[in-house]
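Input chain follows. Return structure tokens only.
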Amino acid sequence: MATTSREIRLKSRPVGMPKSENFEVAEVALKDPGPGEVLVRNSWMSVDPYMRGRMYDRPSYVPPFQLGEVLQGGAIGTVVKSNDERFKEGDLVESMLGWREAYVGPAAPLTKLPQTNVPPQAYLGVLGMPGMTAYGGFNRYGQPKEGETVFVSGAAGAVGSIVCQVAKLRGCTVVASAGSDEKLAWLKSLGVDAGVNYKKGNLLENVRAAAPKGIDIYFDNVGGEHLEVALEVARPFARFVECGMISIYNDTTPAPGPRNMSYIVGKRINMKGFIVIDLIDMREQFLSEMGGWVKDGKIKWEETVENGIANAPKAFLNLFTGANTGKMLVKLD
């Protein structure tokens, strides 16, 4: 049974902002699955900001992508043929074998999706890694208390938009930063109390006006000026949850650090960086509570979708220009 698959490979390492020429499309022939293997055809794949770090040739918490090899990322697919008793034809599975239309490989690392009314691609978003990052990071390191004020940067993204809603469900006041009035209007529809368009006016003045009593929790997806502003408006004993710093991912020279880091001492701020694998012990809690909220309509999400494997690099590049609202996905042919 011969079949082929197109895949996206890293052609060259980006310098600064990635470009389309850093990627290439290749077609490969797939072998028949052997013992314990499955053939899967992907239907959805995820692109995420952390992938930019894997394009550098440097040590990190995950190995770098290799030149000339297919990229990796979250994907949802359908089992076409199985030589593993745990999977049958037609099963929906989640893998880290995105950036390709189909693959043959061991069945062991795959996760079978439950049969629910939730769209399968939600397991790449609200019920997947971004949702777990938002839920686990905010609850464990933000330690929210009812009545507190939460500031979320990158609030219209896959992680930030979930943090905003979890914070509201925990009884907090939420101030959200996003890059357009349209995104802020969407966030308002999710229950956000105040929004700041960081592309308009003075960011510090606007955040101060939105949170006149200061902030108790800062969930950081952006870094840079947003972090400096958050330090300025933080209340004593504030908690800073450092999830990402997308504003500096493509810098070719080190960005200046916040000029007001001394506030960490005087305000006794607790600043904690994390990655999602630190939260693995919360997975069952996450699936139970978040799954219940999704089922009850208490959590909503948005998707920005590009179509076809050839447009996967475009989807990835658009993450760095703010072209997405909610989760950026690629729907595969």
